Amino acid sequence: MRSRERSGGPSGKPPRRRRAPVGGFDHATRGVLATVRTQRNMKFHVLAAVAVVAAGLLFRVSALEFAALVLAMTLVLAAEVLNTAVEALVDLVSPEPHPLAKLAKDCAAGAVLVCAVGAAVVGLLVLGDDVLALARSVAGRP
Length: 142
Prior knowledge:
Pfam families: DAGK_prokar (PF01219). Its cofactor is Mg(2+). It is an enzyme of class 2 (transferase). By secondary structure, the chain is mostly helical. It has one domain (about 35-140): Helix Hairpins, CATH 1.10.287.3610. About 75% of the residues lie in helices and about 0% in strands. It has helices spanning about 5, 25-40, 40-60, 65-95, 100-140. The radius of gyration is 22 Å and the shape is extended.
């Protein structure tokens, strides 16, 4: 170790402790869990993701199709977490209603909508024929 690191560098402060690479995941996990607990739309997206995974396994989609489904679901879930972060930050810095605060929240929600519509299109392209065939067989139609 160099002398600068032992003494804390020019500021005289002790060096920052290094975290294990996995240690930073606790904050991320808390953020995702907080979003699931507090956001109704995130709960819906998680349930939809579970249903899509089940459908992909039931219909035995190809690995590439399954990857497309997983990527689309991940994008929606990540967008919902980011939307929650934007909403919290806007509420912190602008507790009173403000047009720019509304715009920021609307744009973040719009990003989730864009991702969700894209994911729905991917889901229909990958699973649509199989879901339709299953619905027809259940209804007794050829």
